[in-house]
Specification:
It is built from no helices and eleven strands. It is an all-beta fold and about 120 residues long.
Length: about 120
């Protein structure tokens, strides 16, 4: 199943450099460790400013095997990404018959400071 990304918010209206990384397993204990992560996309996106969603078009699809777990790390090199606040009582953000997306952690670039439930 291909995946496309939509950033929650950027804090600027400037062109922002982004990176998207993938790990073929859960991210727990690897939030601050680049080992096991593979960069799947990078580029520049025009930020839409605070409270406006910014879309990133991926040049290649990201596929997932049935019944598998994988993690994605989406980041802006400038640090002007604004993460939504998670809910400690709701681990699953959205799901359908084919896919379940769970909340994760906010990690500043590159694999640095950590905030769970994002």
């Amino acid at each position: 199943m291909p995946w496309s990304n939509e950033l929650r918010h950027t804090a600027s209206n400037a062109n922002e450099r982004y990176e998207i990384w993938r790990r073929d397993d859960e991210y727990y204990s690897y939030e601050n460790d680049q080992d096991g992560w593979t960069m799947v996309s990078c580029g520049t996106v025009a930020g839409n400013g605070l409270y406006n969603q910014t879309k990133i078009a991926l040049p290649v699809p990201i596929y997932a095997q049935a019944l598998s777990n994988f993690s994605l790390y989406v980041t802006l090199l400038s640090g002007f990404i604004v993460y939504g606040r998670g809910n400690e009582n709701e681990i699953v953000n959205v799901e359908n018959d084919d896919l379940m997306i769970s909340q994760g952690a906010a990690v500043s670039y590159p694999f640095y400071a950590l905030s769970h439930n994002r």
